Amino acid sequence: MDSRRDRRYFTKKKVCRFCTEPIEIDYKNVDLMSRFITDRKKIVPRRNSGLCAHHQRQLSSAIKRTRFMALLPYTVLH
Amino acid sequence: MAVTPNYYETLYITRPDIQEEDLAKIQQKLQDSISAHQGEIIKADKWAERGLAYEIQDYKRGIYYILVFKALPSACAEIEKHLSFYNTDILRFITIKTTEEAVNKEKAAQEKAAEEAANKEKAAQEKATEKAEAEKAEAQKAESAKEPAVEFAAEVEVVEETPEADKEEPAVEFTAEVEVVEEAPEADKEEPAVEFTAEVEVIEETPEADKEEPAVEFTAEVEVAEKDPEADKEEPETPQQAESAEEEASEVTEEEGETK
ipTM of this model? Predict the structure, then answer.
């Protein structure tokens, strides 16, 4: 199973960015938050963001705060 | 168990046309409620003025204020009460519990940023003086060349600052114009009409000229008047060039597509 998967596509194992780099998750850091939302302004899932559970949870709540303060949109329909 | 003071951070958005008195009144109330709960204000700043991601009470812009303080938890409730009372002036507010370390880190970062800003200012001032000198020299060049044709070439040089313009400065008006036409399609691929590109350039030129040197402003206006008829004259000749430029542009895009 594993060998088959390897043959299909080669993927580097992602390591959580916030574990490796000294970056604070801050809801006021709009540039950082906007990197973790999709084109349709959804929060990027963990399988794509590559974050660990702890930081993904922190990030998602931070993005929700950012949205509440009108720094990021909730949808593209506004 | 005794209640200990915590660190909090409040961010609130006021409407952009808020009266200064009202804002001062609100901020005074916040200050009072913090000091009433054994608290101290660590930071009270204007954070930003920016467009909102979506409209709140029909406002498209807002002014963000940040308030970092250390107080008992009961202060938090009071602050939120005050902020929600003035809900016509305060569009949104959020209070978040932070840690002492985060506050200290931020302080250190701020001091660093202040130092860097001071250094940058120095560098910027030096650069500004250099620029001013360079502009002066260019302005003198433009003045010394009294013929309108050469003046136009000099203008191009000022705006674009390309080395090619330098070389062709003494050249006749015609070549200088051709160069402009060639450059324009690269800048905006979407607009194939030569007339239109000329207009766009005029629009781009004038504000830059305004910013850089008030002396050139006058000449720039004169050239705007001159340019349009010239562009019209050359129209029968230029379409071929424009077409060739378009072809080139399309080729470039195709290549890009392939590489992708």
Answer: 0.79
